Amino acid sequence: MAMHTVTDPLEELWNHTMSMDKTHLMCFYPSKITMGGVWTGDNPLDFSIPLLLFQILLITSTTRAATLLLSPLRLPTYISQILAGFLLGPSVLGHLPHFSNLVFPVRSLFVLESMALLGLVYYTFIVGVEIEVSAITRAGIRSFGFAVGCVLPPFLVGALTGYVALSTDDKHKDDTFLNKLSFPIFLGSTFSSTAFSVLARNIAELKLAGTDVGQLTLSASLINDTFAWTGLTVATVLGHSRCTITQTTWTLTSGVVIFGASYLLLRPMLLRLARRAAEGEAVGEDRECWILIGVMVAALVADAGGTHAIFGAFVFGLAVPNGPVGVALVEKVEDFVVGALLPLFFALSGLRTDTAKITNMHSAVLLMVAAMVAAVLKVAAAIGVAGVFGMPLSDGTSIGLLLNTKGIIELVILNIARNKGVIHFN
Q: Which of 61, 247, 272, 360 yields a CA-CA distance of 20 to 30 A from 85?
């Protein structure tokens, strides 16, 4: 009997999920959910609930240990979370015999990834709540100048790099014109994005929140991220293998409708609730619960519309005023989401990362050089914009460096692109 070795659990899971032939899918016993006890000879790792609990304990423990070890360097928490996921992946611990097959078997990844995505849904909702949409509309001409100047050069570098990468890959020569646009738009959007939530915390720690540089940077970052999320949405739609102009149009229309419904219908109701809360009226647990349920509804509608569940949660978060209501909602979910669910996402990202599979060094070097060029051009563009508006060049340099801030959202964007087929396993 031939032996079957699982070398990449997530790749096999993806092949199972995406294949049109479902005859090779595994079957599971309903009685394998909970165990009868170790005294009956049961192995906890053979049952879904004990295995899931063990995985969560392992992931959170590894994350906390990495955070403790890196604490003298005063690095952001997400750095240790990314490192912990990398350690648990095939690049490090995955080299141990049977580690991946025992601790992260294919049958467990459906549940683990679903929980991780649920955590991402609420994390992107929190990010949306922290962004005040009115700040974009109040942004002056200088903010728009910095935003446009710091978006276009990195986007063009990323789009050109994506086009060169596709033109040298024979696997994509049969793709349609719309499919070929997907990866360049995605890479350009990724290069031009800024991690707003991380940037806001950095600006607060640097005591720049009340300065001209800090306010301009935050306003420009909001506009940058709006552009980046729009580009990501377009890229995921175009990346669908069965994408046609009609389907693309309907999917993009669905995204616009979701945004319009959240901002034109939901936001006025939440603004009234925020005014009452400011006057001393309690928000109420029932109202908070309905809003948090609404996050799942928005995520479901967005995923059904062809964009992504995270897009729906993010847009829903934008509709929530960043005041007493927003603060109360964030306090309800942030600790559990960031402390327990978000590390699962980093662990899955680590399981997808295998440095041994980097065989095309030319493409890897091209990507690294392009990322560095995009970062340098963003700083240069900020200096140029500062000169146009008569600001000190040192302020332009500071704004350009701050707008190069990256964080969790960029890793989320990469995973969305991979799940939607914009980035392929090979």
A: 360
